[in-house]
Request: fold
Amino acid sequence: MDTQSIVILDFGSQYTQLIARRIREQNVFSAVLPCTASLAEIKAYSPIGIILSGGPYSVYDADAPDADPGILDIGLPVLGICYGLQFIAHHLGGKVLSADKREYGHAEVHIEDSKTPLFAGLPTTLQVWMSHGDEALELPTGFHRTAATSNALAGIANETRRIWAVQFHPEVHHTPLGSQLLKNFVFGICGAQGDWTAAHFIESTVNSIREKVGQGHVICALSGGVDSSVAAVLVHRAIGDQLTCVFVNNGVLRKNEFTQVTKNLRDKLGLNLVPVDASARFLEKLAGVTDPETKRKQIGREFIAVFDDEATRIAEQTGGVDWLVQGTLYPDVIESSSVRGPSQTIKSHHNVGGLPETMKMKLIEPLRDLFKDEVRRIGRDLGMPEDILGRQPFPGPGLAVRILGEVTAERVAILQEADDIVVNEIKTAGLYSQVWQSFAVLLPVRSVGVMGDQRTYANTCAIRAVHSEDGMTADWVPLPYEVLKRISSRIVNEVRGINRVVYDITSKPPGTIEWE
Ligand code: GLN
Reply:
C-alpha cells in the first residue's frame, strides 16, 4: 500500500471504530485489524504507527485477547488506549491488577510530563472519559508516569522505545481535547502528512482498478442506493463501458423508483445500465409468505437467480464477465473480523455475497475501507448529484419487510402511496437529510373508522423516523406534531385502503429500525 496508514488493533472496545474515524478526519488513513492479526498482516498496511484499543477483558484473564507482543519491538511508535495501556504494561514486565477505585465516566487528569510529545499543546488539566476497573500498578522498566487522576495512573511513556499509553479514551466526544492528543500522536510522533483526501483516494482507486481489470469485463448489481452507485461511478471512471450495471426491479421498490433510478443512473451518471423488471417473479415467490426471515431469504435467493440470468446474458455478449463490483463498506468488513465472538443474527442480510462463488467472478470492492460519510464525500468529489448521495438507507428486501404479513401487489401499491407521502412531507419540512430513515409500515391490522358518514374497516399504517450514526443503534425522532398531522391526514385522505395512522416511538435496541 502506498498510502501512509495507522493500524489500530482491536481488543473488542465499543469505541474502536471511533479511533479510526478520529484519525481519518485528520486526512490520515487508518485500518482496524483484529488484535490477533499477524505481524505480516500488520506490515502489509505499511503503517507509520500502531494504536492498541480498549477492550472488555482484563489482561490477567485466562481468555484475555492477546496480540503478538512483537508489535512493541518493530520500531514503530505505539499508542495504547485503556486496555492497550494495560497490555503494554503486562507484556513488558509491569503489573496490572483490579483497582481499588474503578473509574467510569467523566474524570479530571493532571498531566505530569507536559514535555512528552503526546501532550504537546495540551493544558496541564484535562477533562477526559474513563471506563476501566483495572490499573497498571507497577510500570515496566524504562517507563514513567506521564499523567494521573486523583485516584489512579492515567498515562505512561517510554520515549526511547517510542511507546505511549493513556488510561482514558481520547477518541470519544467526552474527552474534548482527545482529537488534539491523537493528532499529536499521528502527526507529531508518527510523522503523518495528512494527504489522504477524497481526491487522493479517487485517483489511487481508479488507477488500481484500471490496472487490475485490464481489458476484462465488469458487472455491478446496482440498487440505486448511495454505496452501490458510488462504487459503480468509481469503476466507470476507471474503465468506462467495460462496466455493465444491472438494476433489478424486485417488485418491492418505492413508488416510481424503478423508472426514476434508471433515469438518474443513465442520464446523470452516464452508466451503462440494464434495467430488469422482475417484479412478477419476485411477487410469485412471496405469495403466501408471512414469516420475515423466509421473506428475506426468498428475495435474496430470487435476486441471485435474476442476476445470474442477466450476468450469463451479458457474458455471452461481451465474451465473458470476469469481475463483480460490490459496494461493501468498512463497518461490514470490521464486523466480520472483530475480536468479539460470533454475534447473534438478528436479521439475515440481503446482499450479493453468494454470487462470486457460484459465478466464478473476482470481486472489486472499492469502498471496503470507507465509512458511509466518507463514501458520500467521495461521491461529491466525483460530481455525483446530491439527490443520489443524500438518499436515506433502504433495505435490500425493500417494502417487503415493511408490509407485515403477506406481500401482494395490492398491498405493495398501498404502501408505496403512503410511503411517498411520508417521504415528501419530511422533505417539505426540511427534515429529510437530518433523519437517518423515515418511512411508513403497513400493518396486518384492520380497524373501524368513519369516513363521509360511512363505516370503514381498513388497514393501519405506522410511521417510523429514526436518528442513527451507523444503523447499529437508533433513537426514534420526535417529529414535529405539525408534520405528523399533515402526514396522517394526507395518508387517510389520499391512500385508499388505510384509515388509521400510528406513530412508532421505539428506539433500537430494543426495536430494530425496520419492522421485519
Ligand atoms: N477491562 C479493562 C478494565 O476494566 C480495560 C477497559 C477498557 O479498555 N475500556 O480496566
